[in-house]
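Q: I have two molecules that I believe assemble together. Could you output structure tokens for the complex as a whole instead of separate predictions?
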Amino acid sequence: MSVQKNLLLICRKAPYGNALPREAIDIALAASAFDQNVSLLFSGDGVWQLLKQQKSDSINSKNHGKVLSALALYGIENIYVDNDSLKQRNLSKDNLLVDTKSVTINEIKALCNNCDTIFNF
Amino acid sequence: MIISVVILGAPYSTQAPATALRFAKSAIAAGHTIHRIFFYHDGVNCANELIIPAQDEIHLPNEWQSIAKENTIDMVVCIASAIKRGVIDPTEASRYEKPASNLKDQFEISGLGQLVDASIHSDRVITFGP
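A: Yes, here they are, computed for all two components at once.
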């Protein structure tokens, strides 16, 4: 797998209630392990995934925040969050547990245009 | 164009596998090549040999099986998604000491690396969501 492509994963769902957010991150980790250039964009309800102080023990779920903390260990540094989605939910970057770059709708367009493959979750 | 398809939705619960099937047939008819179908999340249920649809409904697992056979398409079921949903081949059945396996012929259990590989070797990767 010597070819390197730019993959963008768009995470649009809240962290608990569905397994998709977790499985999307698994794709990011696998792609990074295979030396692909991975970017993540959190948008819509997906921004809730980034929230600090998640306590998922009481619902018998793995802590999604901890999973996201592993991204840096896998060398995934291109993590974007849709600024409008944060604002609509009265959130700011201070509420987020991962270092993210907040982007506007036009920057998201450019992000999509610069990627070879987009996975939408 | 070389196309790979990702299916996230379960058959008979969501439209995803049925729409993906029609997409794959249309793409082949239009002269494109389907490189791989990757079944992920609830989509892994498409590979369950034990599925019995109502007689007046489309048999999705059989449809996938025949399109793959006729066009030599690689159909990969994600191992992590599959085993937690009870879709297992004889190897996994023996590894986890289960009394039976249910992976349909033409489907193959493998890892997420196959999805990454598909995105490297395809011009387009199309996702059919849940």
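A: One point stands out. The mean pLDDT of chain B is 97.
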